[in-house]
Amino acid sequence: MDLPAPMLPIPGPPPSRGGWSYEREQDGLRVVCGAADGCWRMLTRYGTDLADRFPELARITDFHGTVLDGELVLSPAGMRRRYTSPEDAARLADDFPATVVVFDVLALNAVDVRHEPYIYRRIALDGLGLTAGAWRTRPWTTDPPADPRGSIAKRLASPYTSGRSPDWIRLRKPSPDRAEMPHLAQPHHGTAPVEVVLDERRNTPRARLEHRVSQ
């Protein structure tokens, strides 16, 4: 069974118009999963098949011909399951159970639906009834979040395309990346004023020295 590479977001500010959905990101490992003829695969974005290390997720075989995109969610201690042998998988499944939080469907009943708009795929995904247990759908809304950080925006009319796409946006707060502190003291005896630069990734200010040479 061939599985496509995942569709990936680009960073950017929230969309200024309608026609988008919004959902919160999980802190997990991106996986594309598929089932056919009683077998299943779970590929990371780098092509590693993890299916034999997570036997508790084999329920996906109930959905023949289905391909799902989501995130494998584990406790910090359970992350080592990615590197253990299949022989230890059953024991570790009891100690560190895994969950796949699903947010897209790429095939249904062995029919490729990647060309369909996201709104169609999302409604079809919700119809699978993955609301509890090891497989769960990620909540979504068409209402923009008050705080966009940590959210993904997806254009409702977009098809599923592997790789980076402007149709999926990892949101950041629409504010200047840099803010200079007011009333900076002028350089004195070789010292330099301090300029505050906002660290977008951690959302904390960091200070750097900026030498200004006056003639």
Notable traits:
215 residues; mainly beta; seven-stranded mixed sheet; four-stranded mixed sheet; 2 helices; globular
* Estimated radius of gyration: 22 Å
Helix content: under 10%
Q: Secondary-structure element sequence? A: EEEEEHEEHEEEEEE
Give the percentage of residues in beta strands.
35-45%
Quickly give the structural class: mainly beta
What's the count of strands?
13
Task: Describe the oligomeric state of these chains in a short phrase.
Answer: single chain
Helix count equals 2
* Uncertain segments: 177-215
- What is the mean predicted local confidence, pLDDT? 81
How would you describe the shape?
globular
Largest sheet: 7 strands, mixed
- The end-to-end distance, rounded to whole angstroms, is 69 Å
Explain what the structure shows.
The termini are far apart. The model is unreliable at 177-215 (pLDDT under 50). This protein has helices at residues 89-95, 118-126, and strands at residues 7-12, 20-24, 29-36, 39-44, 66-73, 99-108, 111-112, 131-132, 135-137, 151-155, 163-171, 194-199, 204-209. It contains 2 helices and 13 strands, in the order βββββαββαββββββ. A hairpin with a 2-residue loop joins β6 and β7. The protein is mainly beta and 215 residues long.
